[in-house]
Amino acid sequence: MTAEKWHVKRFDDLSGKEVYELLRARETVFVVEQECPYHEIDHHDLESLHVYTTDAFGVVTAYARIFQEGGLVTFGRVLVRKDQRGKGLANQLIGKVLQVIEEHFPKQPIEIEAQEYVQALYARFGFKTISDVFLLDDIPHVRMEKR
User: Fold this and answer.
1) Does residue 37 sit in helix, strand or coil?
2) Domain extent listing, the chain
3) Long-range own/partner contacts, residues 66-70 (CB < 8 A, 24 or more apart)
4) pLDDT for residue 2
5) What is the pLDDT of residue 1?
């Protein structure tokens, strides 16, 4: 496992090419792979911190976005490109996301809606499940928090 070069940018600091690559990665994972034909772009993109790494060609290999909602911090659209899975990149990504949250939103509680099958990943970082399973875009999710 190699150490990745992570980028953390607000929407207005992203280049047009970076926006394209982030949205292409999200569409590939969420719309195509997970067969979730829902709008991939929303108002949170404009207010988020976008955390990502790329391959040598500038193609996104891992990504998440962080934003405040109410009195909480949340992150979502967490993805690792299919050909990069199983290499520890998800752990690196979540570690980086939590580091960015601590830098930008110190001591604020974090709440996420995690896909059910990755609960254990978040639990390794101290997240606790706080809900029963529910469907979000026809995919089983749970709410998790870290305080």
Assistant:
1) coil
2) 7-107
3) 66/97, 66/100, 66/101, 66/104, 66/105, 68/105, 68/108
4) 60
5) 52
Q: CA torsion 40→45→46→48, rounded to 10°? A: 170
Distance CA 111, CA 13 (A): 26
Closest to 137 (Cα-Cα) out of 23, 69, 37: 37
Residue at token pair 């962080």: 66
Alpha-carbon distance 47 to 65, whole Å?
A: 9
Q: What's the pLDDT at 49? A: 98
Structure tokens at 120: 């254990």
CA 124 to mean position of chain CA atoms = 16
Burial 100-119 (b: 16+ CB within 10 A, else e): bbeeebeeeebbbebeeeeb
> Which residues does the chain have with pLDDT short of 70?
1-3, 38
Q: What's the topology of domain 7-107?
A: Aminopeptidase (3.40.630)
Place of tokens 């034909």: 37
